[in-house]
Records
---
Amino acid sequence: MAEVSSDTSRRAFIVGAVTLLASSASPTFAQRYKLTSAGTRFYAEIYGPLPDEAFAIPGVRFDVLDPTYLRQVVEYETPERVGTVVVDTSHRLLYVTLPEGKAIRYGIGIGRAGFEWSGRALIKFKRPWPTWTPPSEMIARQPELEQWRGGMPPGLDNPLGARALYIFKDGADTLYRLHGNGDVTSIGQAVSSGCVRLLHHDVIDLYNRVVDGSPIVVI
């Protein structure tokens, strides 16, 4: 039998080790969720950088999200009329109803315990890059917000983000908003002071689809 050199043995060991590491490496986002290359390109495009906004918005690390929370058209049977916004707080999802039993679905973050709101209301109006004015009761809880009592200017650091949709009930402002947010890790979580947060990219898409006076149902 031919003798195997020590160099040959080392090479075989290294090749075997590399093969083992490759086979045990974590699967990619596309592999985990069975996304086609076209699907991955689609999300890379819709969640890519938005340099032409009033404040340039960076791209989203959509691969860290459960794909349940990625924007998509889904089957959605509901008695609500077309154009209604439905916020499903238990599943951290927001729907805009479409014809033929479909809806556009977005992942959201919601209010933490003690700051929830539910019911029927209207989206009275909406604003791009809004000023944020913290309510007096929020300032009482967080005195460092006193500097913004007169309003915080628009920008990526503004808690309302790129867009805000204002919820009114019986003609009165509920002080709850649907608004933008740059923290991808907050989607699917209960972390806000009661407002419903979406990714900047998703709230811009929502803003472009929803008209003033649209009904909203928060369940």
---
Amino acid sequence: MGERTRLWAFSHVLDGAHVGRDCNICDHVYVEGGAQIGDRVIVKNHVMVWEGVTIEDDAFIGPGVIFTNDRYPRSRGLVEVSNHYRRRENWLGSTTIRYGASIGAGAIILAGLTIGRYACVGAGAVVTHDVADHHVVVGNPARVAGWACVCGVPLNDRYCCPRCERRYCLRDDILVLVE
């Protein structure tokens, strides 16, 4: 646990997990050993962060978000798959939430995906594919619904932010801040 990180009631951070500095880990959060949480991350109530999940600095994880770490889970006691579960690399999916991304309340993030920098996942979305930087995704399955500013507000059709007035342009389908 990093300096100045707050861990609220009924939350559990297991041995082998890393939680950075200045984080806020709210009530009833479960962080499994092997999970990595960067600096200044907010993890709201009732979130489960499993081994194999990396959350980079300055991300926001809304209430009730569920991460997964096994793309095709089975009971480890099932004879037909017992060999599969003997080695971690056979089943453990690495999921990465990049710098500044926001995951809305109740979203489900499947194993082995990357949510890009400043991306926004809408509340209740079920994310089944990678999400590119600055993309806004919504629905089940999650689909692209627009672009997000670094401040989190969706951009208008001219790639301008109505809140902070930053302007962007598209270059090779990549959102670029205009200086």
